[in-house]
Amino acid sequence: MLEEAREVLCRFDGSPLTTFERKFCVAPMMEWTDRHCRFFHRLLSRRALLYTEMLTADAVIHGDRQRLLGFSEEEQPVAMQLGGSDPAKLARAARIVEDWGYLEVNLNVGCPSDRVQSGRFGACLMAEPDLVAECVAAMGNAVSVPVTVKSRIGIDDQDTQESLDRFIDTVASAGCATFIVHARKAWLEGLSPKQNRDVPPLDYPRVHRLKERRQDLEIILNGGISSLDEADAHLARVDGVMLGRAAYQDPWILAQVDSRIFGEGEPPALAGVAERMVPYIEREMARGQRLHQITRHMTGLFSAVPGARAWRRTLSEKGVKHDAGPDVLLEALACIQIPAAAE
Length: 343
Prior knowledge:
Four Helix Bundle (Hemerythrin (Met), subunit A); 14% strand; alpha/beta; 2 domains; 8-stranded parallel barrel
């Protein structure tokens, strides 16, 4: 079966895409959307735009770039999300990101964590639209790829109607044409980052009204979308949608994106996606990666399929062992009973 898995991937057209749309995106998620996750997600959808975990401008400038920025060309199209508030540093980091081959640089103006606030970036920057505009202008002057912004609809006691409009208009005047808007406020005092993903109420109509008011801008809606049916409904009102936890925890959503959202082809075979990961795992393990670093992103692949529990258990229990290799993935796959209609 191992040889068959290699052959499957060899026949798979892994040529990278260098043009893209933001009609469907997978959100940047810390400790989740690393390069292994993105390679796996790309096997599920050729058209979804994938985002990295957020990196600070300082990390890009001074850190281990191969470790932080390295990625497989098969992952394209990929966008890099940066955090920071110093225009000069962000411009320098953006140039580095472009040189590494990323197709978009996104500025994080939405993360509510204490650590991010203490560094004066993330959601707290929604109180400083003029500074964000300076950052966007500096980055835009430094690179030829698009510079985009991901924000909330507001923070704390801000009036979302007035403050969001001012924020968008100010930053757009600096050259930003694309905004990804998480349709919740961020409460910087009193709520944890986890609570900020669930507790503040969603206000999708606010984002819809933003698009109606600024038809000239590309508006991508983020926050709480859990299915492609919901995504389709929002796409009637905005230019694109971004899914985070739903796409990560139930990756099969991504397998339907190309056909449902872009009208292209049929979803890939369930077992085939897992098999196509084998040569990648072999390659990455030869470079010193552990099996679990890769397969931890795959545990939700067979959600609601007979044998899914055994699949998850095998990957979770055997995949963490020091000597675990691709055979563990194939052992887990043998637990799955694929319905004939999905083969």
